[in-house]
Amino acid sequence: MCGITGYIGYRDAYPIVINGLKRLEYRGYDSAGIMMYDGKEMKLSKTKGKVSDLELIVNNEEKRKVGKIGIGHTRWATHGVPNDTNSHPHFSESGDLVIVHNGIIENYDTLKKELVTRGYTFKSDTDTEVLINLIQEVKKNEDCKLGKAVQLALTSVVGAYAIAVFDKTKPDELVVARLGSPIAIGVGKENNEFFVASDASPFLEYTKNAIYLEDEELAIIKIGKGIKVRKIMDDSLVDATIQKLKMSLEQIEKGGYEHFMLKEIHEQPKAIIDTYRGRMLPDQGIIKMSGVDDNMSKFLNADRIIIIACGTSWHAGLVGEYLFEDMARIPVEVEYASEFRYRNPIITSKDVVIAISQSGETADTLAAIKLAKSKGAFVFGVCNVVGSSIARETDAGAYTHAGPEIGVASTKAFTTQITVLSLIALKLAKEKGTLSTSAFQNYLRTLELIPSQIEQMLKIDDSVKEIAAVYKDATNCLYLGRGFNFPVALEGALKLKEISYIHAEGYPAAEMKHGPIALIDENMPIFVIATNKGHYEKVVSNIQEIKSRSGKIIAIVTEGDTQVKEIADHVIEIPETMEALTPLLTTIPFQLISYHIAVMLNKNVDQPRNLAKSVTVE
Fold it and tell me: Does residue 361 belong to any structural domain of this protein?
């Protein structure tokens, strides 16, 4: 959830670390801090608030910027309320060691009580201060170097972590380690500089060479000598692989848009093309996906497919359920990863588990993957970030190729995940013979049109903004959909909640009569997906029921619709497409409405309160 960054080398560290924190602020933004080592002293600056607040403090005292070594942190609070004291970095009691930490130390209270008996006192309420003092205690008792002290201390830790630790008595090295939280190491030329960060974005302009630590690995980084990676539990050496980064700096900048979210909404046509490019060949009637091709028998012989995910990815998984069952006639269950991992699920070697995550680092989804693999299931990953933990933990998978998604509220992640699931469902349907050749080819040709249709829809932004202005002061909203578009109703409600803080709920349209209808009055906006495919007449009846109770209706309809237009207060048209592909279009107006309402309410669109992009702790 938090973002950590660090630098050791020949350059001035401050601009690298502070700009890295700005790029990582999507991971947490309730406090921020930085430590600079000038060759003699460690200078600590930290504050409650955003990285911009931290900058103001540092700019008032230039000596806080001096040094070739620095580590920084932007926090999403777990242990200890957001305030200056609980902000990272944290010093050990001796003042020699300093740490930044992403994750949760679950047994921190036990460790803290033991350290208190040994004379330690604590300034903060964080688990992180406990960890750095544990490292100090081990280093003192074992009379060992920092790397060994960190390793031994972590064998006593229960929880998740990505850490970077610096010892001012050994100013040529940094120690980093991970378990359950991501960490990347950027490698400069000739081992003369190194970068550390929660993801690669902070050091893209300096190096394209990166090492991603695996779980329970620790790296000792030394200027001029390189990196040694060891297993924490058995101290064995690891042959760490340097990966070439494909992400560009331009991809993570706003590109003229006011917010990352708006940029990413507008990137969806390209993102979907990038997702199916090279995989879908409509002219040849072929879908090529090596992760599926190489494991076709596992899919075709599966008793069922279990989809596990959280948040927006879970909504994409619900669309996937409709796709797989409708096209390929394979039974599907969709599970919240956070519940799946704790309820002793029945899993066998005849099950295929599909794990979906934008970041590839979602803690609950990772734990669910490990549980499924322990039961013998074949696990297939769908994620966006190359080299992420889920990409490495799964047996096979497919990247969405959406490009970096910085806005906390996922947009292009959702549509590209649906695109990947559509491709898999279509490929399985063709192999099983549950779709005719002509129907299969029609799907491919129709899916190929989706990006240009989204481009067309994005041109209605001004009219969507007018609708947003009407309902920006609503306190409650309902979102209704049926069939393939029920998950889109859930996703639409989630988007509004996430960034505008307006209470909203999504329901199957027919379920409105089983409770939510009691809420409807003249002040209640109801967003209804009423495309001409599927259960159109049933949805029209639902709309009439709403209208008779004075509800305000905003309907998503197919171009040329006349019946709903006569009833609804507002309509937004989508282009004609096949029913199974409508979620790729119907979600666009909901993204735009949520965005504009949040902007009109002066909310922080890219960094909504209490949320972080990647949920790497439970």
Answer: yes
Say which CATH number the domain at 412 has: 3.40.50.10490
Q: Does some domain include residue 383?
A: yes
From the list 2, 310, 383, 477, the catalytic residue is: 2
Question: Where is the domain boundary, 436, 457, 478?
Answer: 457
Rounded CA-CA distance 62/75 in Å is: 24
- Residues in Cβ contact with 237 at an 8 Å cutoff, skipping those fewer than 6 apart: 228, 229, 230
Looking at the fold, whether 367 and 474 belong to one and the same domain comes out as: no
Q: Per-residue pLDDT for 312 more than 90?
A: yes
The answer to whether the beta carbons of residues 480 and 531 sit under 8 Å apart is no
Q: Nearest to residue 401, comparing CAs of 277, 242, 290?
A: 277
The confidence score (pLDDT) of residue 252 equals 65
Residue 613 pLDDT greater than 70, yes or no: no
- Tokens 């495309």 map to which residue? 531
Among 418, 437, 457, give the residue marking a domain's end.
457
Is residue 2 annotated as a catalytic residue, yes or no?
yes
Claim to verify: residue 52 and residue 129 sit in the same structural domain: yes
- Helix, strand or coil, per DSSP, at residue 193: coil
88 and 210 fall within a common domain: yes
Residues 430-441: b if buried by 16+ CB within 10 A, e if exposed = bbeebbeeeebb
Calculate mean pLDDT across residues 481-496: 95
Same domain? 537 vs 400: no
- 396 beta partners: 380
What whole-number distance in Å separates Cα of residue 204 and Cα of residue 192? 17
**Contact assessment for residue 47 and residue 59, using Cβ atoms and an 8 Å cutoff:** no
> Is the pLDDT at 595 greater than 60, yes or no?
yes
| pTM summary value | 0.75
Give the model confidence (pLDDT) of 521-578 as tens digits: 777 899 999 999 878 888 887 888 878 787 889 999 999 998 988 899 999 999 999 9
How many domains does the chain contain in total? 3
613 inside domain: no
Compute φ and ψ for 558, nearest 5 degrees.
-80, 145
Active-site residue (options: 48, 430, 552, 613): 613
Q: What is the pLDDT of residue 501?
A: 94
Count of beta carbons in the 10 Å neighbourhood of residue 96 = 16
Indicate whether 45 and 192 sit together in one domain: yes
Considering the domain architecture, whether residues 473 and 378 belong to the same structural domain is answered as no
Write out pLDDT tens, residues 78-109. 766 778 888 899 999 999 999 999 888 888 88
Print the domain residue range for 241.
Answer: 3-251
3 state DSSP class of 256: coil
Q: Catalytic annotation on 495?
A: no
Q: How far is CA 222 from CA 153, 173, 379, 380, 513, in A?
A: 20, 4, 38, 37, 66
Give the pLDDT band of residue 247 (cuts 50, 70, 90). low
